[in-house]
Design brief:
Elements lengths: L4 E3 L2 E3 L1 H15 L3 H9 L3 H12 L6 E5 L5 H8 L3 E6 L2 H14 L5 E4 L12 E7 L8 H11 E12 L7 H21 L2 H13 L3 H10 L3 E8 L4 E7 L2
Parallel strand pairs: 3-4, 3-6, 4-5, 6-7
Antiparallel strand pairs: 1-2, 7-9, 8-9
Helix pairs in contact: 1-8, 2-7, 7-8
Length: 243
Protein backbone atom coordinates (compact mmCIF):
# COMPACT_ATOMS: atom_id res chain seq x y z
CA UNK A 1 0.00 0.00 0.00
CA UNK A 2 1.27 3.48 -0.83
CA UNK A 3 2.01 6.23 1.68
CA UNK A 4 -1.28 7.94 0.84
CA UNK A 5 -4.75 6.71 -0.15
CA UNK A 6 -7.83 8.47 -1.44
CA UNK A 7 -10.47 9.86 0.85
CA UNK A 8 -12.89 11.16 -1.72
CA UNK A 9 -10.87 13.57 -3.86
CA UNK A 10 -8.24 14.06 -1.14
CA UNK A 11 -5.05 12.09 -0.60
CA UNK A 12 -4.50 11.20 3.05
CA UNK A 13 -2.45 8.81 5.15
CA UNK A 14 -3.96 5.30 5.45
CA UNK A 15 -4.68 5.66 9.17
CA UNK A 16 -6.33 9.01 8.52
CA UNK A 17 -8.65 7.47 5.92
CA UNK A 18 -9.66 4.68 8.27
CA UNK A 19 -10.46 7.21 10.99
CA UNK A 20 -12.37 9.57 8.71
CA UNK A 21 -14.38 6.80 7.04
CA UNK A 22 -15.31 5.62 10.52
CA UNK A 23 -16.59 9.09 11.33
CA UNK A 24 -18.64 9.20 8.13
CA UNK A 25 -20.45 5.96 8.91
CA UNK A 26 -20.93 6.83 12.54
CA UNK A 27 -22.63 10.00 11.30
CA UNK A 28 -24.88 8.31 8.73
CA UNK A 29 -25.66 5.05 10.57
CA UNK A 30 -29.09 6.13 11.80
CA UNK A 31 -30.05 7.41 8.36
CA UNK A 32 -28.34 4.77 6.25
CA UNK A 33 -31.47 3.88 4.26
CA UNK A 34 -32.01 7.54 3.44
CA UNK A 35 -28.40 7.74 2.26
CA UNK A 36 -28.85 4.73 -0.02
CA UNK A 37 -32.12 6.08 -1.36
CA UNK A 38 -30.46 9.41 -2.12
CA UNK A 39 -27.49 7.82 -3.89
CA UNK A 40 -29.49 5.30 -5.90
CA UNK A 41 -32.87 6.94 -6.40
CA UNK A 42 -34.35 4.18 -4.27
CA UNK A 43 -33.12 1.42 -6.56
CA UNK A 44 -30.65 -0.08 -4.07
CA UNK A 45 -33.35 -2.46 -2.83
CA UNK A 46 -33.75 -3.98 -6.29
CA UNK A 47 -29.99 -4.21 -6.74
CA UNK A 48 -29.62 -6.00 -3.40
CA UNK A 49 -32.37 -8.47 -4.33
CA UNK A 50 -30.58 -9.25 -7.59
CA UNK A 51 -27.24 -9.51 -5.78
CA UNK A 52 -28.54 -12.12 -3.34
CA UNK A 53 -30.11 -14.09 -6.18
CA UNK A 54 -26.64 -14.29 -7.74
CA UNK A 55 -25.13 -15.48 -4.44
CA UNK A 56 -27.71 -18.29 -4.31
CA UNK A 57 -27.56 -18.87 -0.54
CA UNK A 58 -28.49 -22.36 0.59
CA UNK A 59 -29.76 -23.70 3.92
CA UNK A 60 -26.96 -24.44 6.34
CA UNK A 61 -24.26 -22.54 4.47
CA UNK A 62 -21.86 -20.35 6.44
CA UNK A 63 -21.79 -16.89 4.85
CA UNK A 64 -19.77 -13.87 5.92
CA UNK A 65 -21.46 -10.57 5.09
CA UNK A 66 -18.66 -8.03 5.39
CA UNK A 67 -19.44 -4.33 5.91
CA UNK A 68 -22.99 -5.52 6.46
CA UNK A 69 -23.74 -3.50 9.58
CA UNK A 70 -27.36 -2.56 9.00
CA UNK A 71 -28.34 -6.07 7.91
CA UNK A 72 -29.84 -5.39 4.49
CA UNK A 73 -27.96 -8.24 2.79
CA UNK A 74 -27.85 -10.50 5.84
CA UNK A 75 -31.64 -10.51 6.21
CA UNK A 76 -32.03 -11.62 2.61
CA UNK A 77 -29.39 -14.34 3.01
CA UNK A 78 -30.95 -15.59 6.24
CA UNK A 79 -34.37 -15.77 4.59
CA UNK A 80 -32.88 -18.48 2.36
CA UNK A 81 -31.75 -20.48 5.38
CA UNK A 82 -28.07 -19.58 5.40
CA UNK A 83 -26.14 -19.13 8.65
CA UNK A 84 -24.90 -15.56 8.40
CA UNK A 85 -22.14 -13.72 10.24
CA UNK A 86 -22.47 -9.96 9.88
CA UNK A 87 -19.15 -8.14 10.23
CA UNK A 88 -18.53 -4.41 10.20
CA UNK A 89 -15.73 -2.17 11.38
CA UNK A 90 -18.21 0.40 12.66
CA UNK A 91 -20.03 -0.31 15.96
CA UNK A 92 -22.73 2.27 15.26
CA UNK A 93 -23.67 0.48 12.04
CA UNK A 94 -23.79 -2.85 13.87
CA UNK A 95 -25.99 -1.32 16.56
CA UNK A 96 -28.48 -0.20 13.93
CA UNK A 97 -28.43 -3.65 12.31
CA UNK A 98 -28.95 -5.51 15.57
CA UNK A 99 -31.90 -3.28 16.41
CA UNK A 100 -33.44 -3.91 13.01
CA UNK A 101 -32.85 -7.67 13.34
CA UNK A 102 -34.59 -7.75 16.70
CA UNK A 103 -37.55 -5.82 15.32
CA UNK A 104 -37.84 -8.23 12.37
CA UNK A 105 -37.37 -11.43 14.34
CA UNK A 106 -33.94 -12.43 12.99
CA UNK A 107 -32.41 -14.09 16.04
CA UNK A 108 -29.87 -16.43 14.43
CA UNK A 109 -27.51 -13.84 12.94
CA UNK A 110 -24.03 -13.48 14.42
CA UNK A 111 -22.79 -9.88 14.75
CA UNK A 112 -19.12 -8.99 15.07
CA UNK A 113 -16.95 -5.89 14.85
CA UNK A 114 -14.19 -6.63 12.36
CA UNK A 115 -11.77 -4.97 9.97
CA UNK A 116 -11.98 -6.42 6.44
CA UNK A 117 -8.21 -6.07 6.07
CA UNK A 118 -7.38 -8.31 9.06
CA UNK A 119 -10.13 -10.77 9.86
CA UNK A 120 -9.89 -12.99 12.93
CA UNK A 121 -11.79 -15.91 11.40
CA UNK A 122 -9.84 -19.11 10.68
CA UNK A 123 -8.77 -20.18 7.21
CA UNK A 124 -11.33 -21.89 4.98
CA UNK A 125 -14.26 -21.18 7.31
CA UNK A 126 -17.03 -19.76 5.09
CA UNK A 127 -18.88 -21.01 2.03
CA UNK A 128 -19.49 -17.51 0.67
CA UNK A 129 -18.31 -13.95 1.30
CA UNK A 130 -20.49 -10.98 0.44
CA UNK A 131 -19.82 -7.26 0.61
CA UNK A 132 -22.29 -4.66 -0.64
CA UNK A 133 -21.41 -0.99 -1.05
CA UNK A 134 -18.52 -1.39 1.37
CA UNK A 135 -15.33 -2.30 -0.49
CA UNK A 136 -14.70 1.21 -1.79
CA UNK A 137 -14.49 2.49 1.79
CA UNK A 138 -11.78 -0.01 2.77
CA UNK A 139 -8.35 1.57 3.18
CA UNK A 140 -6.33 -1.33 1.74
CA UNK A 141 -8.59 -3.04 -0.80
CA UNK A 142 -6.04 -5.69 -1.94
CA UNK A 143 -5.57 -6.79 1.67
CA UNK A 144 -9.34 -7.09 2.13
CA UNK A 145 -9.62 -9.20 -1.03
CA UNK A 146 -6.82 -11.50 0.13
CA UNK A 147 -8.54 -11.90 3.49
CA UNK A 148 -11.80 -12.76 1.73
CA UNK A 149 -9.95 -15.45 -0.21
CA UNK A 150 -8.28 -16.79 2.95
CA UNK A 151 -11.47 -17.29 4.97
CA UNK A 152 -13.33 -19.04 2.15
CA UNK A 153 -13.38 -22.81 1.79
CA UNK A 154 -12.29 -24.37 -1.48
CA UNK A 155 -15.20 -23.97 -3.82
CA UNK A 156 -16.26 -20.87 -1.90
CA UNK A 157 -17.59 -17.86 -3.74
CA UNK A 158 -16.96 -14.14 -3.46
CA UNK A 159 -19.62 -11.58 -4.36
CA UNK A 160 -19.29 -7.81 -4.24
CA UNK A 161 -21.96 -5.23 -5.05
CA UNK A 162 -20.52 -1.77 -5.63
CA UNK A 163 -21.07 1.51 -7.42
CA UNK A 164 -18.92 2.03 -10.48
CA UNK A 165 -19.00 4.36 -13.49
CA UNK A 166 -21.84 4.08 -15.98
CA UNK A 167 -20.81 3.91 -19.63
CA UNK A 168 -24.19 4.94 -21.03
CA UNK A 169 -23.83 8.21 -22.97
CA UNK A 170 -26.01 10.96 -21.55
CA UNK A 171 -26.91 9.02 -18.42
CA UNK A 172 -23.33 9.28 -17.16
CA UNK A 173 -23.44 13.07 -17.36
CA UNK A 174 -26.90 13.23 -15.79
CA UNK A 175 -25.92 11.02 -12.85
CA UNK A 176 -22.68 12.94 -12.39
CA UNK A 177 -24.65 16.17 -12.06
CA UNK A 178 -27.22 14.56 -9.75
CA UNK A 179 -24.66 12.91 -7.50
CA UNK A 180 -22.31 15.86 -7.14
CA UNK A 181 -24.83 18.69 -7.02
CA UNK A 182 -28.00 17.17 -5.58
CA UNK A 183 -27.04 14.31 -3.25
CA UNK A 184 -24.91 16.40 -0.84
CA UNK A 185 -27.73 18.94 -0.60
CA UNK A 186 -30.17 16.12 0.17
CA UNK A 187 -27.78 14.97 2.88
CA UNK A 188 -27.72 18.48 4.33
CA UNK A 189 -31.50 18.83 4.20
CA UNK A 190 -32.49 15.43 5.56
CA UNK A 191 -29.51 14.29 7.61
CA UNK A 192 -27.88 17.65 8.37
CA UNK A 193 -24.62 16.20 7.05
CA UNK A 194 -23.53 17.48 3.66
CA UNK A 195 -19.86 16.52 4.05
CA UNK A 196 -20.46 12.79 4.66
CA UNK A 197 -22.68 12.53 1.61
CA UNK A 198 -20.15 14.43 -0.49
CA UNK A 199 -17.44 11.97 0.54
CA UNK A 200 -19.60 8.97 -0.35
CA UNK A 201 -20.17 10.34 -3.85
CA UNK A 202 -16.51 11.24 -4.31
CA UNK A 203 -15.49 7.75 -3.16
CA UNK A 204 -17.43 6.28 -6.08
CA UNK A 205 -15.46 8.40 -8.54
CA UNK A 206 -12.15 7.26 -7.04
CA UNK A 207 -13.04 3.58 -7.01
CA UNK A 208 -11.36 1.45 -9.72
CA UNK A 209 -13.31 0.90 -12.91
CA UNK A 210 -14.92 -2.48 -13.55
CA UNK A 211 -12.06 -4.14 -15.49
CA UNK A 212 -9.48 -2.91 -12.98
CA UNK A 213 -11.41 -4.16 -9.97
CA UNK A 214 -12.06 -7.50 -11.65
CA UNK A 215 -8.32 -7.83 -12.18
CA UNK A 216 -7.70 -7.01 -8.49
CA UNK A 217 -10.07 -9.82 -7.50
CA UNK A 218 -8.10 -12.22 -9.68
CA UNK A 219 -4.80 -11.04 -8.20
CA UNK A 220 -6.15 -11.93 -4.75
CA UNK A 221 -6.37 -15.56 -5.87
CA UNK A 222 -9.93 -15.87 -7.19
CA UNK A 223 -10.70 -17.61 -10.48
CA UNK A 224 -13.60 -17.45 -12.93
CA UNK A 225 -14.01 -13.77 -12.08
CA UNK A 226 -17.00 -12.05 -13.55
CA UNK A 227 -18.55 -8.60 -13.57
CA UNK A 228 -22.24 -7.95 -14.17
CA UNK A 229 -22.93 -4.26 -14.80
CA UNK A 230 -26.30 -2.70 -14.15
CA UNK A 231 -27.48 0.61 -15.60
CA UNK A 232 -24.46 0.60 -17.87
CA UNK A 233 -22.09 0.10 -14.95
CA UNK A 234 -23.48 2.61 -12.48
CA UNK A 235 -23.47 -0.35 -10.14
CA UNK A 236 -21.94 -3.78 -10.71
CA UNK A 237 -21.89 -7.27 -9.22
CA UNK A 238 -18.37 -8.71 -9.09
CA UNK A 239 -17.79 -12.37 -8.37
CA UNK A 240 -15.08 -15.00 -8.19
CA UNK A 241 -14.41 -18.51 -6.93
CA UNK A 242 -11.78 -20.05 -4.69
CA UNK A 243 -10.43 -23.39 -5.85
Amino acid sequence: MSDTVSFGYQEVAPDEKTRRVGEVFSNVARRYDIMNDAMSGGMHRLWKDRFVRRVKPRPGEQILDMAGGTGDIAFRLADAGASVTVADINPQMLEVGMGRAQARGFDTLVWTEANAESLTFPDRFFDAYTIAFGIRNVTDIPSALREAHRVLRRGGRFFCLEFSTTLWPGFAEAYDFYSHRIVPKVGKLIAHDEDSYRYLIESIRRFPDMPTFERMIGEAGFVQTKVEPMLGGLVAIHSGWKI
